[in-house]
Design goal:
This protein has about 140 residues and is α+β, with helices and mostly antiparallel strands. The protein has one domain: Secreted effector protein pipB2 fold, CATH 3.30.2450. Helices cover about 30% and strands about 30% of the residues. It is built from 3 helices and 6 strands. The strands form 2 sheets. The protein has a 4-stranded antiparallel beta sheet with strand order 3-4-5-6. The chain has a two-stranded antiparallel ribbon with strand order 1-2. Helix 2 packs antiparallel against helix 3. The chain is elongated, with a radius of gyration of 20 Å.
Amino acid sequence: MQAMKCSVSRCPAAASRRPSVIGRAAVGGPVATRQLLLHSGETTIAVPISPEKVKELQGAIQNLFVTFAEKAKATRPKRHEMMEWTTNDERVSVEVFCNPNAHTTAFDAKLLITVASEGGLKVTTEARLSAITSDVDDFMKS
């Protein structure tokens, strides 16, 4: 029996081990995106996203922490605005939602995260605010 030779460009098994390109611009050049790893319990979702969009998400999360600080200082109950952040590109859309009225403190807060791809894949998960804050901070440091 003869051993089968397999090159990376022709072998399906080898092709699956090739590093994937994160994105392409309309003219065929690379898009400046990196993988944002979102941890939700034992699940990790890798999202190709630009640093500019992650900075926007970081700002929305910081505003949410301000809302929780105001909520803690309040002497009377008050309805606070919900945090909704969305970004779309050609290949993936990300939505992050939090209702601060449903959580007593930022430490208890959870975010509802939806990631949808152009191929029809859609994942919705609930993640702790502290975990996503850590994920965003790690992305911005790297």
